[in-house]
Amino acid sequence: MTNLLSNRDARRVFLAKQGLANPPNRALTKAGLLQLIQDIGFVQVDSISTVERAHHLILFSRNQTYRREHLTELLEKDGALFEHWTHDASILPSAFFVYWKHKFHREEQSIVERWRKWRGEGFEAAFEETYKRVLQGGAIMAREIKADGHVSGGWWNWHPNKTALEYHWRTGKFAIAGRTNFQKVYDLVERVIPAEFHSPEVEHDEFVDWACRSALERLGFATSGEIAAFWDLVTPQEAKAWVDAHREELVEVLIAPADGGKPRPSVALSGFLETLDSFPEAPARIRVLSPFDPTLRDRNRTERLFGFFYRIEVFVPEPKREYGYYVFPLLEGDRLVGRIDMKADRKAGTLDVKRLWLEPGVKASAGRLEKLEAELERIARFAGVEKVVLMEGWRG
């Protein structure tokens, strides 16, 4: 018998799994921050700081007592976190590092061929030279080994040594020791990741089991494709084979979508249905989410669960944008109720709110606007500006 999970229960479970049902103002210690990141799995890193960088806003949306210096210490001093790729650059618990070694091996097998098509023959000559330089001279930034006369540009215009740094990072020989003005500082992985996280080696089957099981734990329920996409460590075929091989440990559930359409077959770990009542409701307050929030990571899943279509329009030409360059989703309780376009003007000391869009059927009631204004005040304090400025026409 397949069990039907209501859309409301599905949203409640997923938000709880993603750390968005915890009390947002309970004091968060450094140890608590590490546990939070371990619970949600990863925190994506991005350079855009329209209001605040993505990783800081992701953590702040879950707990308003979050302190940036705790994250820096965990990353750069304690070695309890490391930075690498999931679907994109992310901050991860170093306790997961042994599993990422399998990703390094896969990257090593494929990356040179991919990059040779991009860079042409001979670019690998810089690999050994760059490795020796870091081995002998210590941590380094790409700008410190830039070739004379090289014109900077995007990833397509990396100089050979920058390519080498990224190659050694992607394949696990280098690690990110820190960032200066958001630029990576590279060093040997053994100088950055504490020895306790390098072993024991994990066999391939154990690696696949961990990748699938840990993804399902953090999603609550999922299809095999969603399991594979969570960490982007295993292939969809490997995830499907894992589900098929572990049927006795799983329960089938049908997830009701937000639009009232056909329920989606998924699986959950056994015992899941018995624990449904233990998942708390998300706080009723409105919270601003980062466009890179892990809750939104799988855009199709977000649309099914919340009835909320969201795309980042950074790379969409301005005349073709539906909303704006960098628009923030709004979470109210267990619903995604709208989006907001705003920017921190640090010179003027203001958080400039340009435009609010509420979802169809969501009313701009006095109570809802009060909750939004309270959240904007919290965001302004976090961004280090003095006041919120609601710009002319912000209500549309």
Describe the global form. Answer: globular
The run of helices and strands is EHHEHHEEHHEHEEHHHHEEEHEEEHE
Percentage of residues assigned to helices: 25-40%
**Mean of residue pLDDT?**
93
The description of the largest β-sheet is: 5 strands, mixed
Strand elements, count:
14
Enumerate how many helices there are, as a single number. 13
Structural class: alpha+beta
Strand order of the largest sheet: 10-11-12-13-14
Uncertain ranges? none
Distance between the termini: 49 Å
Compute the gyration radius: what is it?
22 Å
Strand content: 15-25%
Report on the architecture of this protein:
The chain has about 400 residues and is an alpha+beta fold. About 40% of the residues lie in helices and about 20% in strands. It is built from 13 helices and 14 strands. β8 and β9 form a beta hairpin. The chain is globular, with a radius of gyration of 22 Å.
